[in-house]
Each structure stands twice: as C-alpha cells, then as structure tokens.
Design brief:
2 helices; 89 residues; five-stranded antiparallel sheet
Length: 89
C-alpha cells in the first residue's frame, strides 16, 4: 500500500464500508472529520498499514490509502483534495 509514498507526513484514509463515505484514521477509530485525522510520520507507516489491514479484514473500511501532506499539513495531491471535498461539478 505504501510503495509510492514520497513525503514525510500523511493521513490514513479509506472508505467506510457501510456508508461509502471517506473516512480518516484518528486515534484508534475512523472519522469523517479531517480535523480529527492523525498525522502519520513516514517512520510510522508500517504500524498504520497493519491497522488498515486489520480494519479492512474486519469489514469496517475498504481501499485504505496514505494521503501525502505538505510540510504545513495540507493535502498535496489534487486527487486527494477532491476526495476530501466531495463531488465536483
């Protein structure tokens, strides 16, 4: 899951399996609120990969990804910004 990561800071994001909504890993749970998301350092990636795998196996989430952040904590990639903000027209 984390093979192409380039940055140093990330959020762990996924889709809630029941609602389909985008969720972010906070501390020990998933939240729809980005402000509650835990910032993950590159050296913590393996630990959070295990958390994502476990939650996916328990059918809580689907399609976990690490969202790369800039140094000031903002989402870097347009794809992830659109995912956070929702459908655009």
């Amino acid at each position: 899951m984390a093979k192409k990561l380039r940055g140093e800071l990330f959020y762990l994001s996924a889709n809630d399996l029941k609602s389909g909504e985008v969720v972010y890993y906070s501390n020990k749970s998933w939240s729809r609120n980005l402000k509650e998301a835990r910032i993950i350092r590159r050296d913590e990636i393996e630990e959070f990969e295990r958390i994502a795998d476990l939650n996916e196996k328990k059918c809580k989430i689907i399609s976990p990804i690490f969202v790369e952040l800039s140094d000031d904590g903002k989402i870097k990639k347009l794809r992830d910004i659109i995912r956070y903000k929702g459908i655009t027209f």
